[in-house]
Amino acid sequence: MVRKILRPHLKTARDARAVRTREALRRALLGLLDLKPLEQITIRDICDVADVGYTTFFRHHSTKESLLNDIAAEQIGQLVGLALPVADSSDARAASVALCSYVDNHRKLWSTLLTGGAAGAMRDEFMRLSRLIAATRARPGTWPPPEIATILVVSSTIELLSWWLRESKPLTVEQVAEIHERVVLTPAVNAGEINLGRTARHTRRAKTR
């Protein structure tokens, strides 16, 4: 009896090859960012390190910035996906611990992204996603306005993480999470609660006049 040899479907094989190529390009860019800023890296540099053909690069990304943005979006999406459900529970400390734990578990990658040539792209993507989330959660009478609150919280978060990742003797996850919760999150939350309280009091006074 002749056994039939099962071969992978052509589309599946191509998809697997595409996944390997994208991962190789991703690793190559991150490795190069450890050495120099993005503006000094060429697409040919990335292809040489990834062992990928020059024209193949453009089947996946139009520019090196596009590749970097994909990496930034994926990492920030993971981070926000972990921290957001905890933040919804009004437990700021748990949200801060979730955020810092994720960065610590992927420390080399985030060091490359935040303290190397990718810092600008990470900041932009973090801000973009956070603004989208803030816009969907704005409540009437919110103070400060959601956009500026988002800018301040995100900027402070990025600066804190960048500082932490640059330290030769970094603080523990719990220590950085405490700084993030007490210095970054709590003031923003308190500002909103104070304003909402004032708005409620002003509304009651207006009704009694």
Low-pLDDT residue spans: 1-13, 194-208
Q: How many helix segments? A: 9
The mean pLDDT is: 78
- The arrangement of helices and strands along the chain is HHHHHHHHH
CATH class of the largest domain: Mainly Alpha
What's the count of strands?
0
Total domain modules: 2
C-alpha termini separation? 97 Å
The main β sheet shows up as: none
The CATH level-2 architecture of the largest domain is identified as Orthogonal Bundle
How many whole angstroms does the radius of gyration measure?
22 Å
CATH topology of the largest domain: Tetracycline Repressor, domain 2
Strand content range: under 5%
Which structural class do you get from the secondary structure elements?
mainly alpha
Globally, the shape reads globular
Determine the fraction of residues in helical runs and give it as a percent range: over 70%
